[in-house]
């Protein structure tokens, strides 16, 4: 019933943005009651129906690796974290809507995770600064999630959402803004849930038709069966 | 006239220090965070500015720069402002922010922070009771009372910090204390860590699938709520949920193990870096310094024990004695 191959998705972001709450909500459909600091990495598993509703429906386990820490950590902690970045199928970038620095740090997070994967193929990274071309070349699907939406006052909501829209565009990724303490945001049938399941489909089979990039091309059949 | 010139010099230097404190706060302390309450930044910069000004005034006093009466005036003003900030503002704001974080007391923040501040003042006052400073000349609400208490607390903290630094410094610098860490050790530990993560994942997969089949069969996993719910759950429990609790316990143990392995790996990486660092010139220099300081520490402890045992009063410290020797015997001129 379930695929034997591993589908691994990293959940990255600054300390305290709500990654553990998000992962708990995604995997167990319940709100996390007592969030505490994540030391190292915590993993959770989500059961995902690939291509739900079609005759090709298949159930996959998606592993969500929630890596804790901050971009400014000591290099010893960074080297230890790097062991989790092997063979990643997708990355979820989490930032806090009430904290601008956390969204700025997402560039550094994505570089940290992607460089680990790019090194074997021989692509050189020059100075670690954000380089748009690196992301254009990137095959790993990204998703940007903004948390703590309930703490933004109604009047400021519009400017915050425009800022995050630019951010998601920079990564060439979809974006979801929600509040991890309220399961309503990911209720079945809502646009957030649709975006989420589209992202997971892209993660499972890379090359899933993405109208932004491939202009509605054919499905590349890189099957894992 | 000279008073005005002196005051303008002092005020310019104060503004410079304020700006420096502001920048330091923004660039170093809050590099990865966003400042929500600007009050904190302002208080930090003001305290920093006034502390630096006091230091500057002492230097001016030694070098005899600026007019004597204006120096005295600025000194008194600075002292008053610093005492005001240290005793009134900073504790009050610390209490206020602590109270704001507790949800229960959110409505009456001000009241509780005032209460906290009054408790602080009570203990602060009690601290100075054993001191022999209350003289009829000065009265009870004078500056001397505050300064003496602040001074004592400050000196104690400084002594603690320097003691800690004196012991920590050789320990960090000297390569004698470094374990030998090879790449193979690190790789082996990383492999164990990844294996543990894999075990956690396979158990969670079983749990997720069990939960899903239970949900589809219609038995929703209810947490026992209320008194009767708890009693009922003791006797009757679905086999699925029993399995779940067992697996959950195993997962908890494995997660704890993975955390420990992660911390050990980070530690090994840090040790490896220290070994690399100690092989460079800077590292060797620090290593030598470490030996020097540790010998000095041991000498100090030895002398202090002898002083206590033989009840001698220490006259001059080694640095002063060293300078005396160089001036008298070697003829080097010191101002």
UniProtKB/TrEMBL annotation, chain A:
Keywords of the record: GTP-binding, Nucleotide-binding
Molecular function via GO: GTP binding
Ranges annotated as spanning the membrane: none
Database matches in Gene3D superfamilies: P-loop containing nucleotide triphosphate hydrolases (3.40.50.300)
Record note on quaternary structure: Homodimer. Interacts with GPR89; the interaction stabilizes GPR89. Interacts with RAP1GDS1.
Similarity remark: Belongs to the small GTPase superfamily. Rab family.
Purpose: Required for KRAS signaling regulation and modulation of cell proliferation. Regulator of KRAS prenylation, and probably prenylation of other small GTPases. Required for lymphocyte development and function. Not required for myeloid cell development.
Protein name per Swiss-Prot or TrEMBL: Rab-like protein 3
Natural source organism: Neovison vison
Gene for this chain: RABL3
TrEMBL record, chain B:
GO molecular function terms listed in the Swiss-Prot or TrEMBL record: voltage-gated monoatomic anion channel activity
Occurrences of domain Golgi pH regulator conserved (ranges): 142-207
Gene Ontology biological process terms from the UniProt entry: intracellular pH reduction
InterPro entries xrefs: ABA_GPCR_dom, Golgi_pH-regulator_cons_dom, GPHR/GTG
Principal location: membrane
Domain (Abscisic acid G-protein coupled receptor-like) ranges: 277-327
PANTHER family in UniProt: G-PROTEIN COUPLED RECEPTOR 89-RELATED, GOLGI PH REGULATOR A-RELATED
Protein name as it appears in the record: Golgi pH regulator B
């Amino acid at each position: 019933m379930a695929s034997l191959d591993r589908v691994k998705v990293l959940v990255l972001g600054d300390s305290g943005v709500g990654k553990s709450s998000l992962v708990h909500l995604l995997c167990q459909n319940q709100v996390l009651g007592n969030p505490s600091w994540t030391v190292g990495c915590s993993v959770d598993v989500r059961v995902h129906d690939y291509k739900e509703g079609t005759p090709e429906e298949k159930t996959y386990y998606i592993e969500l690796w929630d890596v804790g820490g901050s971009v400014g950590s000591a290099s010893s902690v960074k080297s230890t974290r790097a062991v989790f970045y092997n063979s990643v199928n997708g990355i979820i970038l989490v930032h806090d809507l009430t904290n601008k620095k956390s969204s700025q740090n997402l560039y550094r997070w994505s570089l940290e995770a992607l460089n680990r994967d790019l090194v074997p193929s021989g692509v050189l990274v020059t100075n670690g600064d954000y380089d748009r071309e690196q992301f254009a070349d990137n095959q790993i699907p990204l998703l940007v999630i903004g948390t703590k939406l309930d703490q933004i006052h109604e009047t400021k909501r519009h400017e915050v959402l425009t800022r995050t829209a630019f951010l998601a565009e920079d990564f060439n990724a979809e974006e979801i803004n929600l509040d991890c303490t309220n399961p309503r945001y990911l209720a079945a049938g809502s646009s957030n849930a649709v975006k989420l399941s589209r992202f997971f489909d892209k993660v499972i089979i890379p090359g899933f038709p993405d109208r932004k990039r491939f202009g509605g091309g054919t499905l590349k059949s890189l099957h894992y069966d | 006239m000279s008073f005005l010139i002196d005051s303008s010099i002092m005020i310019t230097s104060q503004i410079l220090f304020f700006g420096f404190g502001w920048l330091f706060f923004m660039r170093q302390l809050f590099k990865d965070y966003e400042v929500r309450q600007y009050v904190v930044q302002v208080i930090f910069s003001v305290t920093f500015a006034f502390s630096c000004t006091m230091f500057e005034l002492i230097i001016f006093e030694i070098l005899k720069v600026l007019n004597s009466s204006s120096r005295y005036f600025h000194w008194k003003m600075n002292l008053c402002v610093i005492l005001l900030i240290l005793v009134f503002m900073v504790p009050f704001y610390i209490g206020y922010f602590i109270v704001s974080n507790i949800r229960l007391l959110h409505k009456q923040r001000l009241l509780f922070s005032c209460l906290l501040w009054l408790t602080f003042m009570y203990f602060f006052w009690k601290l100075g009771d054993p001191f022999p400073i209350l003289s009829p000349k000065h009265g009870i609400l004078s500056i001397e009372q505050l300064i003496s208490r602040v001074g004592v607390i400050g000196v104690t903290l400084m002594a603690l910090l320097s003691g800690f630094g004196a012991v920590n410094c050789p320990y960090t610098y000297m390569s004698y204390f470094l374990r030998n860490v090879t790449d193979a050790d690190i790789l082996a530990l990383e492999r164990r860590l990844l294996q543990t993560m894999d075990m956690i994942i396979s158990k969670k997969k079983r749990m997720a699938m069990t939960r899903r089949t239970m949900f589809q069969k219609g038995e929703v996993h209810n947490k026992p709520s209320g008194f009767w719910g708890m009693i009922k759950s003791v006797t009757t429990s679905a086999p699925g949920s029993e399995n779940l609790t067992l697996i959950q316990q195993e997962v908890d143990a494995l997660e704890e193990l993975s955390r420990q392995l992660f911390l050990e790996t980070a530690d090994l990486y840090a040790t490896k870096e220290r070994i690399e660092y100690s092989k460079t010139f800077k590292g060797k220099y620090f290593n030598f310094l470490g030996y020097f300081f540790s010998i000095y520490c041991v000498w100090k402890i030895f002398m202090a024990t002898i002083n206590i045992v033989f009840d001698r009063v220490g006259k001059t410290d080694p640095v002063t004695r060293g300078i005396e020797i160089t001036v008298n015997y070697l003829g080097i001129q010191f101002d």
